[in-house]
Amino acid sequence: MTTVITPQLTYSERLQAVLNKAPQLFVDGEWCASSHDKTVPVYDPATAKVITHIVDASETDVNRAVAAARCAFDDGRWTKLPPAARQKFLLKLADLVDENADSLAELEAVDNGKPLTIARGFDIPRCAEILRYMAGWIAKVTGDAQDPLAAPAGTFHAYVRREPIGVAAQIVPWNLPLFMAVMKIAPALAAGCTVVLKPAEQTSLSALRLADLIAEAGIPAGVVNIITGRGEACGDQLVRHPDVDKVAFTGSTQTGKMINRAATDTLKRVTLELGGKAPLIVMPDADIAAAAEGSAGSIFFNSGQICIAGSRLFAHRSVFDKVVEGVSSQAAGWKMGPSLAPDSRMGPLVSDEQFGRVMSYIDSGKKDGASIMAGGDAPSVDGYYVSPTVLADVSPGMKVVDEEIFGPVLVAQRFDDLDEVIKAANATPFGLSASVWTKDLSTMHRLAASIKAGTVWGNCNAKVDPALPFGGYKQSGLGREQAQDGIRAYMETKTVMIAL
Ligand code: NAD
Asked: Is the CB of residue 235 below 6 angstroms from any atom belonging to ligand 1?
């Protein structure tokens, strides 16, 4: 059957006006030109056409942005504000995100390829939510008083303070562009740090638009600086910069390792949110229809470009065929279409490069003998669309099973008992998340305790909540974001001991 993809809709005047702007950087509270004239083209993934350009920041630009953040931190214009004042700024920014949700969503859709309905219904509201949540922590991160172990009572006043680390370099990927940016900025500002943010070169438009809102919210100049450009150039310079105290990165495990090494020279504080290859386990007693729907939603949402996508389905032998049949028929309901069409459920992949990467995984699966239960192809149109794909008859050792694909491709395997599936689920260098489907409480808790992952969901999937810590075991990351852990990741612990 040939899949018909409708053409992209005409851009609104509001969107076109943003795209017509000259490429600029947001440094020290102002829009400024780069020190050189290098730019990066920006594509609409639904048409594969260039829609605008962004600055490919030079080393001089990076130095300028870090100097602005350094100065803003050192002179205390942010850190020394009363907590209530910082809180007001974050809440104001959250309100502005809400007020501008339609235009932000439109920008995100044409930049990333995701359906406008998802950008408007998921990405943008989550940004306002995390800003409000982190604003709530500002006056609540406390220190402790503690009597020393070896001193007689009353001879010392000893206490522990939490202080902002300093200048944070924040580098984010292209899959949830604004949400990832705000997930970084919100806790850093709540902790009292200042920031240089570099969004992914494929999807910088919403972060640049956020800069306008940051200025409108009245956040002091230099507290948030946003630069754009290629990771291997300005991203690397940012990470190595001696005036950066903390690096927070979300992206691939490969880049995360490079960043960790680059940050070592000056022993910067580092947090990393990296790749995943999450198992989704279906036990024989599970609600099979719900599990199949959950599994499809987990791998096809955002065209599978999600670090927590349940990309390895393990179904008990007794229910395997039913589950795979269920997920495969769900695939047909994930209507592919251009980002601005209101009935699109799955957009194109973000870039030509990602399209080539995902298709080469599908080809390797076919060559290795996988059976195509759904999809396995790409519609022949200009955009970067890949059909929602389910592969069965796969086994460890195949690239499609062992490696993160980061596309709408599910691999399905059978198992017979709990020990076998625990071993198989953990047989990966990743450990970001997992999902378990069963009605049996004992099985649920045994699996939750045995799977090496930062988050385990039971009878649901991909529920990331600001109040709960998020991060990876093993090569899926270092440290945690969100919850109190998220703000602590931007703070140093200081012990004070005063002899009385
Ligand atoms: P990527 O690692 O290629 O790029 C991410 C960011 O790093 C971009 O801004 C890029 O410009 C920058 N970068 C690249 N090389 C750099 C270098 N040498 N120094 C400094 N910066 C550099 O990742 P991607 O392809 O944009 O994103 C997909 C990956 O992100 C997947 O592996 C996915 O699992 C992961 N991801 C993880 C999470 C999480 O929370 N764990 C969330 C989203 C995405």
From this structure: yes
